[in-house]
Specification:
The protein is of the alpha/beta class and 239 residues long. The two termini are 33 Å apart. Helix 1 runs parallel beside helix 2. It has eight helices and ten strands.
Length: 239
């Protein structure tokens, strides 16, 4: 089975449409979304509709729960708080309810999916370094953990070694891994292209995929919505 794993769409319709087109081209068997469908971008409603249409396997991100009123925005940066408050005003009651009822985790036997970290999925901790990864391996038993949240593609092994592959990485079935597919709508690794991964459960492999999209249109929409200007500018630079 080949599974497309997407994360951190953040209301970026143009990026999501490009990723879905690529997933269709690859003829994948399933899609899993690791959360943060909304926040920052100008098209949260449209992104929710698309995610609901392509998968029933979506976990909650901190922005999803924040928009739904389940997570405090006091610790959010000012621009993130403003985006959350704006997003609440443009979603209908059904869309807000969808975000509120998203689960924090999905478990498929040897594979665990969540947005942030397994120690406390509702505390929204980050796995940014090898040291972070080593700690988090203590909190799950599955062979592979897929997480989002950092917007940076990564593969970590149990020794905390960073294993980001240029193309396809074949995992050792005797070992354990943490995999981050990066971000569809707001990459932060210095590359503006949308990011996701393909997980091949037969070959036990991870393929990192980058997809170009209409960044300028996405940026202009953020400006037109009168969201913070930095949100329109940083997607042009993968920041």
């Amino acid at each position: 089975m080949r599974i497309g794993i997407i994360s951190d769409i953040h209301g970026n319709l143009e990026a999501l449409q490009a990723v879905v087109a690529k997933i269709d081209e690859l003829n994948l068997d399933k899609i899993v979304c690791l959360g943060d469908i909304v926040g920052y971008g100008a098209d949260p409603s449209e992104c929710i509709k698309i995610v609901k249409s392509i998968t029933s396997n979506t976990v909650a991100g901190n922005h999803d729960y924040a928009v739904g009123g389940l997570t405090s925005i006091n610790y959010f940066a000012p621009v993130a708080r403003e985006a959350v408050e704006w997003t609440r005003t443009v979603l209908n009651s059904s869309e807000l309810a969808f975000l509120r009822f998203l689960p924090l985790t999905i478990n498929w036997g040897a594979v665990l999916f969540l947005h942030s970290s397994p120690d406390s999925p509702d505390m929204w901790n980050y796995i940014l370094t090898g040291s972070d990864a080593i700690v988090q391996f203590r909190f799950f038993k599955e062979s592979v953990l897929f997480v989002g949240h950092t917007h940076v593609p990564a593969i970590w092994n149990e020794e905390g070694k960073y294993l980001y592959p240029a193309e396809v990485y074949r995992m050792d079935p005797r070992k354990r891994y943490i995999v981050n597919p990066g971000s569809v709508g707001q990459p932060r690794d210095g590359i503006e292209d949308a990011s996701f991964v393909v997980f091949n459960t037969d070959k036990w492999s991870i393929e990192m995929v980058r997809v170009k999209y209409d960044v300028e249109t996405a940026s202009q929409k953020i400006k037109q919505a009168e969201l913070p200007i930095i949100l329109a500018e940083r997607i042009k630079h993968g920041q």
